[in-house]
Amino acid sequence: MGIYARVQIGNVQVVALNRLAGFSSGNFSELNVADYVGDDLENVAKNINEVLKLVGADDIAVMSAEHGNNVIEVDQGGKCEPSDVLITRVPNLALLGLSADCVTVALIDAHSGVIGIVHSGWQGLVAQVLQTAIDSILANGAARENLVAVIGPAICAKCYEVSQDRVAKVSPINSAAILDSQHIDLCGGIKATLVDNAIRYEQFIGCTFEEEDLFSFRRADGKPTGRGGMVVCMRIDEVTS
Question: Can you give the residue range of the structural domain that contains 97?
Answer without folding.
Answer: 3-155+201-234
